[in-house]
From TrEMBL:
Pfam families: Response_reg, Trans_reg_C. Gene3D superfamilies: 3.40.50.2300, 6.10.250.690, Winged helix-like DNA-binding domain superfamily/Winged helix DNA-binding domain. The keyword Transcription applies. The modification 4-aspartylphosphate is found at D51. This is DNA-binding response regulator in two-component regulatory system. Residues 124-218 form the OmpR/PhoB-type domain.
């Protein structure tokens, strides 16, 4: 899952980014509104964590421009502005959730997980496809009730496919959400991760649609 973090306070940005990466997310950061608006308008993210008090274009203006342009990406607003009227203004501008500072990282992660699940049509924290179960809270995967040990890349790949089960995901989209901007996006690397994942899940678990992409097969357990 690919997250854009927009925060101009270095300590908070570092802490939030480290927490999100430890939870299995690909995180890209920026500290100003102009760059945030451009990235959100041209790149595909699963979620934006957006501070309102940004230099130049503030977070509220960024959010309004995204929504006016038809961008529906989930947005979690972070802000030191704590009054109810400011919260209402943020929600009315198109925010999906609102977290006032200071906050606990556990709460931020819970809200991030919930927003990403809801955006892909999943209400419960455990996503199932056939015999495969993905616990988004604990980052645990099991098959037929037996826990599996996955590498971070394997987990990210499976989590993205599970969140989008029932849809064929193109290779380019998978690479974006698996590696982000900071790592090589090579088709051969993607195939290698898929091969390792199929050995653990069963060859039939992830279907290849030649010329289109990959899909999780949701068959009865």
């Amino acid at each position: 899952m690919r997250v854009l973090l927009v925060e101009d306070e270095p300590r908070i940005a570092g802490d939030v980014a480290a927490t999100l990466m430890a939870a299995g997310y690909v995180v890209e950061t920026t500290d100003n509104g102009e760059d945030a608006w451009f990235r959100g308008d041209t790149e595909d993210y699963d979620l934006v964590v957006l501070d309102l008090g940004l230099p130049g274009m503030d977070g509220l203006a960024v959010l309004k421009r995204w929504r006016a342009a038809g961008r529906t990406i989930p947005v979690l607003v972070l802000t030191a502005r704590g009054t109810w009227s400011e919260r209402v203004e943020g929600i009315d501008a198109g925010a999906d959730d609102y977290l006032p500072k200071p906050f606990r990282m556990e709460e931020l992660l819970a809200r991030v997980r919930a927003l990403i699940r809801r955006a892909s049509g999943h209400g419960a924290p455990i996503i199932e496809a056939g015999s495969i179960s993905l616990d988004t809270r604990q980052m645990r995967v099991s098959r037929d009730g037996v826990p599996l040990t996955l590498s971070p890349l394997e987990y990210r790949l499976l989590a993205y496919l599970m969140h989008h089960k029932g849809r064929v995901v193109p290779p380019g989209e998978l690479l974006e959400h698996l590696y982000g901007d900071d790592e090589s996006r090579e088709a051969n690397a993607l195939e290698a991760v898929l091969a390792r994942l199929r050995k653990k899940l069963g060859a039939e678990a992830i279907e290849t649609r030649r010329g289109f992409g990959y899909a999780i097969v949701d068959t009865p357990a």
